[in-house]
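Run Pilus assembly protein CpaF through structure prediction, thanks.
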Amino acid sequence: MEVIEAFVAQRPGAPPAAAQRLGSDGGFPVEFGPLAGFVADATVTDVFVNGPGSVWVDRGTGAVPTAVTIEEAPLRDLAVRLMSLGGRHIDEATPCVDARLHDGIRVHAVLPPVSTRGTLLSIRLPRIRRLSLDDLDADGFFPAGALASLRALVARRENLLVTGAGGSGKTTLLSAILGAASPAERIVAIEDVAELRIDHPHVVSLEARQANLEGAGEISLERLVREALRMRPDRLVLGECRGAEVRELLAALNTGHDGGAGTLHANSLQDVPARLEALGALAGMTPTAIARQTVSAIGTVLHLERRGTQRVLAQTGRFALDDAGRLRVVTP
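Sure, done. The structure for Pilus assembly protein CpaF is below.
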């Protein structure tokens, strides 16, 4: 223990003695090599390695460079090892891979020659403590009166879509919303890479699987949505809508599965209809079809923004049809 504590103290960016993220064995996360100090630091949200000699960290105020340097050979070895720990394989034939490690740490790696600067690593780190709606409110996440309204939406099992740009807090808010659901309800969550950390007694999580080296064995989000419907969910959750699986989700939410939720990348609330139309096109749906399905399926849109170090619920809206039958968002 003394050796580990001494190691932590001398690592660049090492966290204070209290509140550290732990590794897969419950101790200091040595599997991350020279990045372990940053991964253990409770204040760090992201670690970026932009090739050899370039390591950046974000503690909630934006990415800043560090003094840590890694040469290409050990950096590539680190990427291969982390992917293997996450049950994935990365090489020249599969140079871009996403993996989840133990308590929701998401690691994305890219190898040369796809990356022209050397091996790239992007590490997304979850909060150590699972935040409730009350915790978010104490941090200034909600405008006045919004929390009470949101609790009412959860209580009456309204289907919700959480939108925002990357890093705006979509997963954090969705986890807190689901944590506020009745303990008697069964939540089935579907994700490409599992990131939701839900403080609820009855949660089942399904994670998509990439194809193996022979191109077989892939389990897509579309299939997982269909499988989830056979598991009698009280709340069906799609961690992120990013492709043709939006068709399966909307179909499910339109057939009596209330209390569902999902997230969607969008830079503004008014961009959400165009994003859904684009995803619907991937599923072979016309703009009119996606509009009618969305209006019927989703009750409220919650749009988040990141303002400096603060994540906030910036706007809420409801879907409607315009005069041409296309999707639009109406704000209060």
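The chain has two domains: 30-124, 133-330.
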